[in-house]
Write a structure and sequence with these properties.
The strands form eight sheets. A six-stranded antiparallel barrel has the order 7-8-13-12-11-14. The two termini are 52 Å apart. The chain has six domains: 147 residues, Rossmann fold, CATH 3.40.50.140; 156 residues, Topoisomerase I, domain 2 (Orthogonal Bundle), CATH 1.10.460; 169 residues, Topoisomerase I, domain 3 (Distorted Sandwich), CATH 2.70.20; 120 residues, Topoisomerase I, domain 4, CATH 1.10.290.10; 52 residues, no CATH class; 57 residues, no CATH class. The protein is built from 27 helices and 32 strands. It is α+β, with helices and mostly antiparallel strands. It binds one DNA strand of 25 nucleotides through helix 3, helix 5, helix 14, strand 22 and strand 24. Keywords: DNA-binding, Isomerase, Magnesium, Metal-binding, Topoisomerase. GO terms for molecular function: DNA binding; DNA topoisomerase type I (single strand cut, ATP-independent) activity; metal ion binding. It catalyses: ATP-independent breakage of single-stranded DNA, followed by passage and rejoining.
DNA sequence: CAGTGAGCGAGCTTCCGCTTGACTT
């Protein structure tokens, strides 16, 4: 009943944006934000709405049998957003959906309309820069939702869901639990694996080359300069780039090439020292260099990494703070465009800081090189219509450093070209006599050699005065090499001739920024996801970092091979690029969502669909896929990824036994050479420790880590009769492999301990699969603690046996909670604690509490619901379970171990600390101006 | 990968892209 005035509700994606736009639009507008997507496919089984739970496809959240209809749910953390948007809408008589102007933004607008169900006129509003004029302009160009664009987004979303949720379970079955596959992560992993394969296959080549320090005479400035010896006779001297990855010389160019060894290089060096040197040719060319484009997400991450040492995550987190503090524009962007007002601001600053000569006549315009760029935002630049210098911001620490970087890059992008000159000088060496050098592939006899010196001078630095991009190797753009003025025929003398040996190096591993750059080039992933892609492949143990380098695990090798062999097209480097083309067709109304998804999922005649690929797994031989040869084929050495980790194996020789040993988790695959494998095999149990000799048998007692945890055992003599099994004893949980001593080990090996006699039978105490227990004939009872194995007396044992067995300790525990009678069965429901955590039971049916359920807060209604659900699907399972019962049981125990290991590993990843400090600084900016 | 006894419920993991919180130390 807001009678007095009419209001328009504008919804954008980001709260920061909302605040800014509200200032431009004035009091007739309420501006709110959705904070990204507000609804999505259900993330897991528990978030699937009850009415779909019985459906076969509920697991996917997509009804694959009926036009790929999607179930959309509002995640719990989004409910407050929806509520407040609805409240704002109640005050408004018009709704403008002003989410980003790209595929995802259009979809968010559509989801907003679905969830808010507006009764007032609703239009779509799109602007590409946050300036008052751009926003005023967009108000005059309102439109309806573009349903084709929404369809394109939904196609993308559903395809990703089908890929991820159908292929991941294949990995669980064939490899290990908790693995994952997806359109983006699987290709990212494959890139890292492929690079490691190249490194493993790489064969280094050794070669020598020659450098000469030359003297141009007393008047020359500089008098001395460096040159390379490039030719001997008519043969070019090989450099690193003349060798291929197999270490072979490649025939490139017209001149024949010779690779020098040490002897040959020294022969030539001696000869040049005594040669007459003269300038043969001087060639100079003008040099100009245009500034770099302003930052987008990937280039900012790379430069923040190289210049400031930030990880991708760190760069984004600091940038987020700068954005929220109003210092920079949006940091997740693939655009390099600057708004007109930004160009004006940058040019003004160029003039002020560097002067007119550094300002090009007309503004520079940058267009995106990113092929699938969505261009919903500007480049990353200082915010506002005038740029604050870093000092004027009052920032400090990481925020200051990143702002400074962004500011300089933006200003530099509107500066003049760098101008200079490059000079190439060719020098002839007339050798004192003819020289003959030989290499395996060639023999050369020559009486001349050629040297080359290159120089670069920069006469006007232009933008380089403000910003020079860092390089991983090679020369940076502002590096200068000065040569003296030289003229043809001029005589020179050699100060020094140096022969040096080199080896070709394998291709470098990816780093975080270089992998992200590669993904961007392949159009895989989006600015908002680059940082999380790295997090995902690290969390899955596909990749780990060694320094800055990303190293794949053998697990990644195995998973990648499985995907390459059985889902070939899905991990094709072009898969996403092709998908983007198809999505463009959908967005343009030239292809249909259902058809695209159907072809993908059910196949399109020629190609098999995903469904078939993920159902017919019979021909996937997991063991074969997980086994890799080491060195040559006949080395007999293999590395295998198993559920217990990665091991090297040596094939049995003759009728001997094969050997195996664990491979350390942090050993890069390319370092697992034949030698390394043999070294590992030489001490089969990595953590084995000898504790001493058994006093009776004089055999060594060792402590090892095994399949069921740490244990001690006796090493049998070589000549022990075949089939003799050594005694073993598991360590108590209170003991440690590193500290256990011989006495304790002997006590463990002496088990079972005889406690005494009871009812004419011997009672023993020992450790077992389910923990410590007593045994009397076939009657066994659990003990409370492991220590009791050594301490329990016969009287105490008698007391334990006097208790009835069936209702032992487990049942003596009271239920955690009583829920009253089940309305369906009228039986009392209780919550109990079991092997798999808390569960509810009515004495007949049992059902685990689900995610989100809590023992404290669970209601009788929920208990009854869980039981009813369980009863509904109970019987179907029993029949299917029978056959593989044994396997399943074995799987379980191991699965638990790997999960435990994983979660422990994951734990340290947190990223909160820095946020607060920078935010604080942002608020105290007024005090320090420059 | 060592090999020890019983008897009791499994359910869940996973994708990619938009965005910011609010648990704790």
């Amino acid at each position: 009943m807001a009678a007095e005035s009419t209001k328009t509700l504008v919804i954008v994606e980001s709260p920061t944006k909302a605040t800014k736009i509200a200032g431009y639009l004035g009091d007739d507008y309420i501006v709110e934000s959705s904070r990204g997507h507000i609804s999505d496919l259900p993330t897991n089984a528990s978030s699937v709405p009850a009415k779909y739970k019985g459906e076969k496809w509920a697991r996917l959240g997509v009804d694959v049998d009926h036009d790929f209809e999607a179930i959309y749910v509002v995640p719990p953390e989004k409910k407050p957003t929806i509520t407040s948007l609805k409240q704002a809408l109640a005050e408004a008589d018009e709704l403008l959906l002003a989410t980003d102007g790209d595929r995802e933004g259009e979809a968010i607008a559509w989801h907003l309309q679905r969830q808010l169900k507006p009764k007032v006129p609703t239009r779509r509003m799109v602007f590409h820069e946050i300036t008052e004029s751009a926003i005023r302009e967009s108000l005059t160009q309102l439109r309806d939702l573009d349903m084709d664009l929404v369809d394109a987004q939904e196609t993308r979303r559903i395809l990703d869901r089908l890929y991820g949720f159908e292929v991941s379970p294949v990995l669980w079955r064939k490899m290990t639990q908790n693995l994952s596959a997806g359109r983006v992560q699987s290709v990212a992993t494959r890139l890292v694996v492929d690079r490691e394969r190249e490194r493993i296959a790489f064969r280094s080549a050794a070669y020598w080359d020659l450098a000469a320090q030359l003297d141009a005479g007393a008047e020359a400035e500089p008098r001395s300069f460096r040159s390379r010896v490039t030719e001997i006779g008519d043969h070019r001297i090989a450099q690193g780039r003349d060798f291929d990855a197999r270490g072979q010389l490649t025939a490139s160019g017209s001149a024949p090439v010779i690779a020098l060894d040490e002897t040959a290089a020294n022969t030539i060096a001696d000869s040049i020292r005594a040669a007459d040197l003269s300038v043969k040719q001087v060639e100079s060319k003008p040099y100009t260099r245009r500034p770099y484009a302003p930052f987008r997400t990937t280039t900012m991450q790379q430069e923040a990494g190289r210049k400031l040492g930030f990880s991708a995550q760190r760069a984004m987190s600091v940038a987020q703070d700068l954005y929220e503090g109003g210092y920079i524009t949006y940091m997740r962007t693939d655009s390099v465009q600057l708004s007109n007002s930004a160009i004006t601001a940058a040019r003004a600053q160029v003039k002020q800081l560097f002067g007119d000569s550094y300002l090009p006549k007309s503004p520079r315009v940058y267009t995106s090189k990113v092929k699938n760029a969505q261009e919903a935002h500007e480049a990353i630049r200082p915010a506002g219509d005038t740029f604050r210098t870093p000092a004027q911001t009052g920032l400090n620490g990481d925020a200051f450093r990143l702002y400074e970087l962004i500011w300089m890059r933006t200003v530099a992008s509107q500066m003049a070209d760098a101008v200079g000159e490059t000079v190439t000088v060719r020098i002839q060496a007339d050798l004192p006599g003819s020289v003959t050098v030989t290499s395996p592939a060639a023999q050369v006899t020559a009486d001349t050699a050629q040297l080359v010196a290159s120089g670069r001078t920069i006469t006007f630095h232009g933008f380089l005065k403000a910003y020079v991009e860092s390089v991983d190797d090679g020369a940076s753009d502002d590096q200068q090499t000065r040569l003296p003025q030289l003229s043809q025929g001029q005589a020179l003398s050699a100060e020094e001739v140096i022969a040096a040996g080199h080896e070709t190096r394998p291709p470098a591993r990816y780093t975080e920024p270089s992998l992200v750059a590669k993904l961007e080039e392949l159009e895989i992933g989006r600015p908002s996801t680059y940082a999380s892609i790295l997090r995902t492949i690290t969390a899955r143990d596909y990749v780990f970092k060694r320094g800055a380098a990303l190293v794949p695990t053998w697990l990644a090798f195995a998973v990648t091979r499985l995907l390459e062999e059985h889902f070939t097209q899905l991990v094709d480097y072009d898969f996403t690029a092709k998908l983007e083309q198809t999505l463009d067709l959908v967005a343009g109304g030239n292809a249909e969502r259902v058809r695209v998804l159907s072809d993908f999922y059910f196949g399109d005649g020629d190609a098999e669909g995903l469904k078939e690929l993920t159902t017919e797994l019979g021909d996937i031989d997991a063991r074969k896929i997980s086994t890799f040869g080491i060195g040559d084929l006949d080395s007999g050495l293999t590395v295998r990824v198993g559920r217990y980790g990665t091991i090297v194996e040596q094939a049995p020789e003759g009728d001997g036994e094969g050997k195996r040993a664990a491979v350390p988790d942090d050993l890069p695959p390319d370092e697992l050479t034949v030698e390394k494998a043999k070294e590992l095999l030489a001490r089969p149990m990595g953590e084995e420790r000898e504790l001493g000799l058994h006093p009776d048998t004089h055999r060594p007692i060792v402590a090892r880590s095994g399949r069921f945890g740490p244990y001690v055992t006796e090493v049998l003599a070589e000549d022990a009769p075949k089939g003799t099994k050594p005694r073993t004893g598991s360590l108590f949980s209170s003991m440690d492999l590193d500290t256990i001593d011989l006495d304790t080990a002997l006590k463990l090996l002496s088990l079972p301990r005889t406690v005494g006699e009871l009812d004419g039978e011997t009672v023993t105490a020992q450790n077992g699969r389910y923990g410590p227990y007593l045994k009397k004939g076939s009657d066994s009872r659990s003990l409370e603690t492991e220590e009791q194995i050594f301490t329990v007396t016969i009287d105490q044992a008698k007391a334990i046996y006097d208790q009835p067995k069936r209702r032992g300790r487990a049942a003596a525990k009271p239920p955690l909670k009583e829920l009253g009678n089940d309305p369906n069965t009228e039986k009392p429901m209780v919550v109990k604690d079991g092997r798999f955590g808390p569960y509810v039971t009515d004495g007949e049916t049992m059902a685990s509490l689900r995610r989100g359920d809590d023992v404290e807060t669970i209601t009788p209604e929920r208990g009854a619901e869980l039981l009813a659900e369980k009863r509904a699907k109970g019987p179907a399972k029993k029949a299917a379970k029978k056959a593989p019962a044994k396997k399943a049981a074995a799987k379980k125990s191991t699965a638990k171990k790997t999960t435990a290991k994983k979660t422990a590993k994951k734990a340290p990843a947190k990223k909160t600390a820095a946020k607060k400090t920078t935010a604080k600084k942002a608020t105290s900016s007024s005090s320090s101006g420059s």
